[in-house]
């Protein structure tokens, strides 16, 4: 099936408020690093991840997705009546892991 009347006018997102840096995680892992004779900075060097973000406990991912959708509609100059379909493309279930 080919779609001929599909348009992407805007993309938006909402970031979780709780930031945990790789440095902060390494501070917690300092005793393990010391026992293994590992220098600090390994977590970021091996993963390329500087920070992780987490939602507050009980935060509904669908509610946050709706906030992002409202932002995208505003950016595109559209209203909900202009939308034929809305796709939530998260990769996780509610509260099991960050999307």
Characterization of the model:
With 99 residues, the protein is mainly α. Helix content is 36%, strand content 8%. It is built from four helices and two strands. The chain has helices spanning 22-28, 30-36, 42-47, 61-76; strands at residues 18-21, 51-54. Strands 1-2 form a two-stranded antiparallel sheet. The longest helix has 16 residues, at 61-76. The protein is elongated and about 60 Å long.
Distinctive features:
single chain; 99 residues; mainly alpha; 2 strands; elongated
Order of helices and strands, N to C? EHHHEH
Number of helices: 4
Low-confidence stretches: none
Order of strands side by side in the largest beta sheet?
1-2
Largest sheet: 2 strands, antiparallel
Q: Give the overall silhouette.
A: elongated
- Strand tally: 2
Query: Gyration radius, to the nearest Å?
Result: 19 Å
Percent of residues in beta strands?
A: 5-15%
- How far apart the termini lie comes to 29 Å
Q: Can you give the mean pLDDT?
A: 87
Structural class: mainly alpha
Helix percentage: 25-40%
